[in-house]
Design goal:
This protein is of the alpha/beta class and 603 residues long. It folds into two domains: 313 residues, ABC transporter transmembrane region fold (Up-down Bundle); 255 residues, P-loop containing nucleotide triphosphate hydrolases (Rossmann fold). The strands form two sheets. The chain has a six-stranded mixed sheet with strand order 6-7-8-3-9-10, with helices on both faces. Strands 2-1-4-5 form a four-stranded antiparallel sheet, with no helix packed on it. The two termini are 72 Å apart. The structure holds deoxyuridine-5'-triphosphate and magnesium ion (MG).
Length: 603
């Protein structure tokens, strides 16, 4: 595995330096590729020198028969060397670039998984997908085509220039007058194209985000019959991408004719001056022939230099974007000096705990409570009052901003996150299931072998066994896109089974029974009662029936504790809890009355 290498040290504000560092472990191979190119370039120049020599010999009176076999052999040999070394260089460069891309892809994937909850809250999925795919591909192309191409251009230029200087230095100098102009022009275009490409890639991310969101929310789109609206929204973004793409292409298409005029003029001048020199007898006809062949291989690199510099910009822009993700701080999973040997007892104390997702916008304020091992704590309160947020502090998904939370007498921040997450089982409010089998979903959180019995017991406890056995493939049924779509209640119950089988020391049930009917809820509650015995449990719920069994009920409002106590205590007080209780009992009483009257009518 190559993921173990920490690529964060490749970070540099200068992408070229970062890209160079990225080549670590492959530099020798890459050097081999460059050297092979040099050999191939030298062999090609050799061919033209040989050609010139041959012409001069013939013109000098030698018969073709005398030197032809040797020259032919020389040509063949040199062509062979050119071909073989070009091939070797291509292969080595491809190997380097593919390895770098593979390493980078693994690294980014691993890195993204370790970023903090807050980072994921703020970052769009489409962006991260683009970083891991098309941006990495641009970096791969940088190494496979552009970096090696730059080497090729440089070598061809140097080798052929040296050969030309050897032939005739004046002629050689005439042949490179245009170089400074081309270089200047290339840099001008490089800056323009970099900007255009960056804008293009940004829009590409916007477009893939729009697409991803539409696909995820396709049901909502259909339910609200908003297809036309969504199509127009997509069309606007797509049009923007088209415009930016056009600008990028315009840059490229402007570059070529200008560069062609420059290099074409150069070639013409070289040929003319060379011809005049040959006619005046300053150089031999053979020299002129060699020159004519080689000058093309000097012009070619000059002409391509610009294109290459322009293309390189995309690799560099993409690398800069990847760097930004790599620079993000990871969630330190193992940080913390206190790891108890046994299971947690589960005594939890909150002292003046406050928390904010964004500065200056506190979501929890001055939370104080204490629960003993094995107790059940219920959180109740209007939507948005901070119940989920409070529960998410326990596995250290987020860090509280002030105050103190202690777990078994030790400050929570001293426990490593991965330890806490191993000990605390959370049934999320909106559980996510993977597109895998039901069995794999239930056993998702555990490494050890799990017996069939265990899985079935957990499913039964979560009151989902019967639903599962009603599917043709039972526990091997695929969930999600390629398999069955589960109902909200089934999903919740699978999530409960997944947590039951994990057998955590502390249990958090975040609105775990909100999508099931009252009958099933009673069933699950009975099963969970066994599970909750001897372990501290947090129940977040809206129904009084779910919270009244708790030892401690905390009523939250606007991020503050407004009432705290047992069911009886809270009922005996004026306040929010009694209001909720009254409303719910009244609704239920009315419901019962109505059911009774309907039944009476029916009979
Ligand atoms: N909030 C954020 N960022 C988040 C999550 C929530 O700013 O990533 C805000 C939204 C809300 C407050 O925090 O104003 C509390 O949210 P929470 O999800 O904790 O509320 P809840 O009590 O669990 O509400 P519900 O009953 O709807 O689940
Ligand atoms: Mg919530």
């Amino acid at each position: 595995m190559t993921t173990s290498i920490d690529l964060r040290e490749t970070i540099s504000d200068k992408p070229l330096i970062g890209l160079f560092r990225l080549m670590r472990d492959f530099r020798l191979i890459y050097l081999g590729a460059a050297l092979s190119l040099g050999v191939a370039a030298a062999a090609r120049s050799g061919t033209y020198l040989l050609l010139g020599q041959f012409a001069d010999n013939i013109l000098g009176g030698e018969t073709a028969a005398q030197s032809l076999p040797l020259v032919a052999l020389g040509f063949l040999g040199l062509a062979g060397v050119t071909g073989v070394f070009t091939f070797i260089s291509g292969t080595l460069a491809a190997r380097t670039s593919e390895s770098i891309a593979q390493r980078l892809r693994n690294y980014i994937y691993d890195h993204i998984q370790r970023l903090t909850f807050s980072y994921h809250d703020q970052t769009k999925t489409g962006e991260l997908i683009q970083r891991s795919t098309s941006d990495i591909d641009a970096v791969r192309r940088f190494f496979a085509e552009q970096a090696i191409g730059a080497g090729r251009i440089f070598l061809l230029f140097i080798v052929n220039l040296a050969a030309l200087l050897y032939l005739n230095w004046q002629l050689a100098l005439y042949s490179i007058v245009v170089v400074p102009f081309t270089v200047l022009m290339s840099f001008f275009f490089f800056r323009q194209v970099s900007k255009a490409y960056e804008a293009y890639q940004e829009q590409d991310a916007v477009l893939s985000n729009t697409l991803q969101e539409n696909l995820t929310g396709v049901r909502v789109v259909k339910a609200f019959a908003r297809q036309a609206f969504e199509r127009d929204k997509f069309d606007v973004e797509n049009w923007e991408k088209f415009t930016r793409g056009k600008r990028l292409l315009l840059m490229h298409s402007l570059y070529w004719p200008i560069s062609d005029i420059l290099t074409g003029g150069q070639m013409l001048a070289g040929f003319t001056i060379g011809a005049i020199m040959a006619i005046n007898g300053d150089i031999s006809v053979g020299t002129y022939l060699s020159y004519a062949g080689m000058v093309i291989w000097i012009i070619w690199p000059i002409r391509n230099l610009g294109r290459l510099i322009v293309q390189m910009s995309s690799g560099m822009v993409s690398f800069k974007r990847i760097t930004k993700v790599i620079q993000q701080e990871r969630e330190p999973l193992c940080e913390g000096d206190y790891t108890p040997a046994d299971c947690l007892r589960g005594q939890i104390i909150f002292e003046n705990v406050s928390f904010a997702y964004e500065e200056d916008n506190p979501v929890l304020q001055d939370i104080n409570f204490r629960c003993e091992p094995g107790q059940i704590v219920a959180l109740i309160g209007s939507t948005g009052s901070g119940k989920t947020t409070l529960a998410n502090l326990l596995p250290r998904f987020y860090e509280y901003t002030s105050g103190r939370i202690t777990l078994d007498g030790v400050e929570l921040k001293r426990y490593p996150r991965n330890y806490l997450r191993g000990q605390i089982g959370v049934v999320e409010q909106e559980p996510f299931l993977f597109s895998r089998t039901i069995r794999e979903n239930i056993t998702y959180g555990i490494d050890r072998e799990v017996s069939e019995d265990e899985i079935i017991t957990a499913a039964k406890a979560a009151a989902v066994h019967e639903s599962i056995t009603s599917f043709p493939n039972e526990y091997d049924t695929l969930v999600g896109e390629k398999g069955v779509t589960l109902s909200g209640g089934q999903k919740q119950r699978l999530a409960i089974a997944r947590t039951i089988i994990k057998d955590p020391c502390i249990l958090i049930l975040d609105d775990a029974t909100s999508s099931v009917d009252i009958e099933t809820e009673t069933e699950i509650r009975a099963a969970l009662e066994g599970l909750m015995e001897d372990r501290t449990t947090f129940i977040i719920a809206h129904r009084i029936q779910s919270v009244m069994i708790a030892d401690l009920i905390i009523v939250l409002d606007g991020g503050r504790v407004v009432q705290i106590g047992s069911h009886e205590e809270l009922l005996s007080q004026e306040g929010a809890y009694r209001k909720i209780f009254d409303i719910q009992t009244r609704i239920e009483a009315e419901l019962e009355k109505e059911i009774a009257s309907v039944e009476k009518l029916a009979s």
